[in-house]
Amino acid sequence: MSQITDPRDRLIVALDLADVEAARALVDRIGDAATFYKIGYRLGYNGGLGFARALTERGLKVFLDLKLHDIGNTVEEGVRAVADLGVSFLTVHAYPQTMRAAVRGRSGDLKILAVTVLTSYDEADAAEAGYALPVAEMVAKRAEQAREIGIDGIVCSAAEAVAVRGVVGPDRLIVTPGIRPVGSDLGDQKRVLTPGEARRAGIDHVVVGRPIAGAADPRAVAQAIVREMETA
Ligand code: C5P
Question: Averaged over 171-197, what is the pLDDT?
Fold first, then answer.
Protein backbone atom coordinates (compact mmCIF):
# COMPACT_ATOMS: atom_id res chain seq x y z
CA MET A 1 0.00 0.00 0.00
CA SER A 2 1.00 3.61 -0.34
CA GLN A 3 3.11 5.39 2.26
CA ILE A 4 0.95 8.41 3.03
CA THR A 5 1.63 9.71 6.51
CA ASP A 6 0.01 13.16 6.42
CA PRO A 7 -3.72 12.68 5.66
CA ARG A 8 -3.77 16.04 3.89
CA ASP A 9 -1.53 14.57 1.17
CA ARG A 10 -4.49 12.49 -0.04
CA LEU A 11 -6.15 15.60 -1.42
CA ILE A 12 -4.67 17.20 -4.54
CA VAL A 13 -6.21 20.59 -5.30
CA ALA A 14 -6.37 21.30 -9.05
CA LEU A 15 -5.14 24.82 -9.80
CA ASP A 16 -7.15 25.14 -13.02
CA LEU A 17 -6.84 28.91 -12.97
CA ALA A 18 -5.88 31.45 -15.61
CA ASP A 19 -2.70 32.79 -14.11
CA VAL A 20 -0.18 32.54 -11.31
CA GLU A 21 -1.70 35.46 -9.42
CA ALA A 22 -5.07 33.69 -9.12
CA ALA A 23 -3.35 30.41 -8.22
CA ARG A 24 -1.25 32.05 -5.52
CA ALA A 25 -4.34 33.72 -4.04
CA LEU A 26 -6.14 30.36 -3.83
CA VAL A 27 -3.14 28.60 -2.25
CA ASP A 28 -2.88 31.39 0.32
CA ARG A 29 -6.61 31.18 1.17
CA ILE A 30 -6.39 27.42 1.66
CA GLY A 31 -3.35 27.81 3.90
CA ASP A 32 -2.31 24.69 5.77
CA ALA A 33 -5.57 22.85 4.97
CA ALA A 34 -3.96 21.41 1.80
CA THR A 35 -0.44 20.25 1.02
CA PHE A 36 -0.67 19.11 -2.61
CA TYR A 37 -1.55 21.06 -5.79
CA LYS A 38 -2.03 20.07 -9.42
CA ILE A 39 -0.83 22.29 -12.26
CA GLY A 40 -2.09 21.43 -15.75
CA TYR A 41 -1.79 22.84 -19.26
CA ARG A 42 -3.57 26.12 -18.60
CA LEU A 43 -1.47 27.36 -15.71
CA GLY A 44 1.60 25.37 -16.77
CA TYR A 45 1.83 27.26 -20.05
CA ASN A 46 1.28 30.57 -18.29
CA GLY A 47 4.03 30.76 -15.70
CA GLY A 48 2.99 27.62 -13.84
CA LEU A 49 6.35 25.87 -14.03
CA GLY A 50 8.09 28.64 -12.14
CA PHE A 51 5.16 28.69 -9.74
CA ALA A 52 5.57 24.92 -9.23
CA ARG A 53 9.12 25.53 -8.05
CA ALA A 54 7.91 28.32 -5.75
CA LEU A 55 5.38 25.92 -4.20
CA THR A 56 7.93 23.17 -3.67
CA GLU A 57 10.29 25.68 -2.08
CA ARG A 58 7.47 26.47 0.41
CA GLY A 59 7.34 22.79 1.32
CA LEU A 60 4.18 22.08 -0.69
CA LYS A 61 3.83 19.12 -3.05
CA VAL A 62 3.10 19.55 -6.74
CA PHE A 63 1.55 17.28 -9.36
CA LEU A 64 2.47 18.48 -12.86
CA ASP A 65 -0.24 17.18 -15.16
CA LEU A 66 1.56 17.66 -18.46
CA LYS A 67 0.70 14.26 -20.01
CA LEU A 68 3.99 13.92 -21.88
CA HIS A 69 4.26 11.81 -25.04
CA ASP A 70 7.11 12.15 -27.55
CA ILE A 71 10.14 10.24 -28.80
CA GLY A 72 12.02 8.51 -26.00
CA ASN A 73 14.97 10.86 -25.79
CA THR A 74 12.72 13.92 -25.61
CA VAL A 75 10.57 12.40 -22.89
CA GLU A 76 13.60 11.29 -20.88
CA GLU A 77 15.22 14.72 -20.98
CA GLY A 78 11.92 16.44 -20.25
CA VAL A 79 11.30 14.26 -17.22
CA ARG A 80 14.83 14.98 -16.01
CA ALA A 81 14.13 18.72 -16.20
CA VAL A 82 10.82 18.29 -14.36
CA ALA A 83 12.54 16.31 -11.59
CA ASP A 84 14.79 19.33 -11.00
CA LEU A 85 11.71 21.44 -10.16
CA GLY A 86 11.23 19.34 -7.03
CA VAL A 87 7.71 18.25 -7.97
CA SER A 88 6.20 14.99 -6.70
CA PHE A 89 4.04 13.68 -9.58
CA LEU A 90 4.21 13.98 -13.37
CA THR A 91 1.83 12.40 -15.91
CA VAL A 92 2.76 10.72 -19.18
CA HIS A 93 0.56 8.89 -21.68
CA ALA A 94 0.74 5.14 -21.15
CA TYR A 95 2.60 4.16 -24.32
CA PRO A 96 5.32 1.62 -23.48
CA GLN A 97 8.12 3.56 -25.18
CA THR A 98 7.08 6.78 -23.45
CA MET A 99 6.75 5.09 -20.05
CA ARG A 100 10.19 3.47 -20.33
CA ALA A 101 11.74 6.81 -21.22
CA ALA A 102 10.00 8.51 -18.29
CA VAL A 103 11.32 5.89 -15.88
CA ARG A 104 14.85 6.47 -17.23
CA GLY A 105 14.52 10.23 -16.66
CA ARG A 106 12.95 9.95 -13.20
CA SER A 107 15.06 10.95 -10.19
CA GLY A 108 14.77 12.08 -6.60
CA ASP A 109 11.24 12.12 -5.21
CA LEU A 110 9.51 12.39 -8.58
CA LYS A 111 6.85 9.76 -9.26
CA ILE A 112 5.59 9.05 -12.75
CA LEU A 113 1.86 8.52 -13.23
CA ALA A 114 0.49 7.02 -16.44
CA VAL A 115 -2.76 8.02 -18.11
CA THR A 116 -4.09 4.82 -19.72
CA VAL A 117 -6.89 6.02 -22.00
CA LEU A 118 -8.28 9.53 -21.67
CA THR A 119 -11.68 9.24 -20.04
CA SER A 120 -13.18 11.51 -22.69
CA TYR A 121 -12.66 8.64 -25.18
CA ASP A 122 -15.52 6.23 -25.77
CA GLU A 123 -15.48 3.26 -28.17
CA ALA A 124 -16.24 5.44 -31.17
CA ASP A 125 -13.40 7.87 -30.36
CA ALA A 126 -10.96 4.98 -29.90
CA ALA A 127 -12.03 3.40 -33.21
CA GLU A 128 -11.74 6.75 -34.96
CA ALA A 129 -8.18 7.04 -33.65
CA GLY A 130 -7.37 3.62 -35.13
CA TYR A 131 -7.52 1.43 -32.02
CA ALA A 132 -9.03 -2.05 -32.36
CA LEU A 133 -9.39 -3.00 -28.68
CA PRO A 134 -12.40 -1.99 -26.60
CA VAL A 135 -11.54 0.87 -24.25
CA ALA A 136 -11.78 -1.22 -21.05
CA GLU A 137 -9.33 -3.76 -22.47
CA MET A 138 -6.98 -1.00 -23.56
CA VAL A 139 -7.08 0.47 -20.03
CA ALA A 140 -6.26 -2.94 -18.52
CA LYS A 141 -3.49 -3.67 -21.03
CA ARG A 142 -1.80 -0.31 -20.53
CA ALA A 143 -2.12 -0.52 -16.74
CA GLU A 144 -0.39 -3.90 -16.87
CA GLN A 145 2.37 -2.51 -19.09
CA ALA A 146 2.77 0.43 -16.70
CA ARG A 147 3.24 -1.97 -13.78
CA GLU A 148 5.78 -4.07 -15.69
CA ILE A 149 7.76 -1.01 -16.73
CA GLY A 150 7.91 0.29 -13.15
CA ILE A 151 5.59 3.29 -13.38
CA ASP A 152 4.65 4.59 -9.91
CA GLY A 153 0.94 5.02 -10.40
CA ILE A 154 -2.08 5.36 -12.65
CA VAL A 155 -4.48 8.23 -13.18
CA CYS A 156 -7.93 6.88 -13.89
CA SER A 157 -11.60 7.62 -13.42
CA ALA A 158 -13.47 6.59 -10.32
CA ALA A 159 -15.33 4.02 -12.44
CA GLU A 160 -12.04 2.35 -13.45
CA ALA A 161 -10.29 2.45 -10.08
CA VAL A 162 -11.24 -0.99 -8.77
CA ALA A 163 -10.38 -2.74 -12.06
CA VAL A 164 -7.08 -0.86 -12.29
CA ARG A 165 -6.19 -1.82 -8.71
CA GLY A 166 -6.77 -5.45 -9.66
CA VAL A 167 -4.24 -5.11 -12.48
CA VAL A 168 -1.51 -3.03 -10.83
CA GLY A 169 -1.63 -4.58 -7.36
CA PRO A 170 -1.33 -2.89 -3.98
CA ASP A 171 1.98 -1.08 -4.44
CA ARG A 172 1.14 1.41 -7.20
CA LEU A 173 -0.66 4.70 -6.62
CA ILE A 174 -4.14 5.30 -7.97
CA VAL A 175 -4.98 8.96 -8.49
CA THR A 176 -8.52 9.91 -9.46
CA PRO A 177 -10.36 13.09 -10.48
CA GLY A 178 -14.14 13.36 -10.67
CA ILE A 179 -14.55 13.51 -6.90
CA ARG A 180 -17.42 15.50 -5.45
CA PRO A 181 -18.17 16.14 -1.78
CA VAL A 182 -21.79 15.35 -0.96
CA GLY A 183 -24.10 18.11 -2.17
CA SER A 184 -21.66 19.85 -4.52
CA ASP A 185 -22.30 20.68 -8.16
CA LEU A 186 -21.26 17.91 -10.59
CA GLY A 187 -20.14 20.36 -13.29
CA ASP A 188 -19.28 18.29 -16.38
CA GLN A 189 -18.27 15.24 -14.33
CA LYS A 190 -20.63 12.33 -14.98
CA ARG A 191 -19.55 9.44 -12.79
CA VAL A 192 -18.36 10.79 -9.48
CA LEU A 193 -17.44 9.39 -6.08
CA THR A 194 -17.45 11.19 -2.77
CA PRO A 195 -14.07 11.44 -0.99
CA GLY A 196 -15.12 8.69 1.43
CA GLU A 197 -16.21 6.36 -1.38
CA ALA A 198 -12.92 7.01 -3.16
CA ARG A 199 -10.96 6.02 -0.10
CA ARG A 200 -13.00 2.85 0.32
CA ALA A 201 -12.40 2.05 -3.38
CA GLY A 202 -8.66 1.98 -2.64
CA ILE A 203 -7.88 5.31 -4.31
CA ASP A 204 -4.73 6.86 -2.84
CA HIS A 205 -5.12 10.49 -3.94
CA VAL A 206 -8.17 12.42 -5.14
CA VAL A 207 -7.92 15.43 -7.44
CA VAL A 208 -10.51 18.11 -6.75
CA GLY A 209 -10.77 21.40 -8.59
CA ARG A 210 -13.93 23.44 -8.92
CA PRO A 211 -15.64 22.35 -5.69
CA ILE A 212 -12.71 23.97 -3.85
CA ALA A 213 -11.73 26.84 -6.18
CA GLY A 214 -15.35 27.92 -6.60
CA ALA A 215 -16.31 27.69 -2.93
CA ALA A 216 -17.05 30.66 -0.72
CA ASP A 217 -14.65 29.08 1.78
CA PRO A 218 -12.09 26.92 -0.08
CA ARG A 219 -10.19 26.19 3.10
CA ALA A 220 -13.26 24.70 4.81
CA VAL A 221 -14.07 22.52 1.78
CA ALA A 222 -10.49 21.21 1.66
CA GLN A 223 -10.60 20.42 5.38
CA ALA A 224 -13.92 18.59 5.00
CA ILE A 225 -12.58 16.44 2.13
CA VAL A 226 -9.46 15.47 4.10
CA ARG A 227 -11.57 14.63 7.15
CA GLU A 228 -13.98 12.54 5.09
CA MET A 229 -11.13 10.49 3.59
CA GLU A 230 -9.47 10.08 6.96
CA THR A 231 -12.57 8.67 8.60
CA ALA A 232 -13.71 6.50 5.66
O1 C5P B 1 -12.88 20.80 -11.24
P2 C5P B 1 -12.77 19.31 -11.15
O3 C5P B 1 -12.77 18.79 -9.73
O4 C5P B 1 -13.74 18.60 -12.04
O5 C5P B 1 -11.30 19.06 -11.70
C6 C5P B 1 -10.78 17.82 -11.89
C7 C5P B 1 -9.39 17.90 -12.46
O8 C5P B 1 -9.07 16.62 -12.96
C9 C5P B 1 -9.23 18.84 -13.62
O10 C5P B 1 -7.89 19.35 -13.57
C11 C5P B 1 -9.42 17.98 -14.84
O12 C5P B 1 -8.68 18.39 -15.94
C13 C5P B 1 -8.88 16.65 -14.36
N14 C5P B 1 -9.47 15.50 -15.02
C15 C5P B 1 -10.83 15.20 -14.97
N16 C5P B 1 -11.34 14.09 -15.56
C17 C5P B 1 -10.55 13.29 -16.19
C18 C5P B 1 -9.20 13.54 -16.28
C19 C5P B 1 -8.68 14.66 -15.67
O20 C5P B 1 -11.59 15.94 -14.38
N21 C5P B 1 -11.09 12.24 -16.74
Answer: 88
